[in-house]
Amino acid sequence: MNKDQVDGHIKEIKGKVKEVTGRVIGDKTMENKGKLQNAVGKAQAGYGDVKEDIKDAI
Fold first, then answer.
1. pLDDT for res 41
2. Alpha-carbon distance 45 to 53, whole Å?
3. Distance (Å) of CA 29 to CA 13, 17, 33, 45
4. What is the CA radius of gyration of the chain?
5. Can you tell me the distance from the alpha carbon of 20 to that of 38, in angstroms, rounded to the nearest whole number?
6. How confident is the model at residue 43 (pLDDT cuts 50, 70, 90)?
7. pLDDT digits over 2-28, tens only?
8. Which whole-number Å values give the CA distances from 6 to 13, 19, 20, 31, 44, in the listed order?
9. Cα separation of 45 and 32, whole Å?
10. What pTM was estimated for this model as a whole?
11. Residue 45 banded pLDDT, cuts 50, 70, 90
12. Cα separation of 41 and 43, whole Å?
């Protein structure tokens, strides 16, 4: 695993926590920020996956 994969998964987890917390307490802003952070984390983890695949192919 590379740094982008790890950081991406951490952002995904933090985003999901914010999203659920926002939903539970009725804070739409927090919920939306959580969804965004989750999406950014998935993108970063995906980028890390691609980097790892390229590294393995070489």
1. 98
2. 12
3. 18, 13, 6, 24
4. 14
5. 11
6. very high
7. 999 999 999 999 999 999 999 999 999
8. 11, 20, 21, 23, 9
9. 20
10. 0.88
11. very high
12. 5
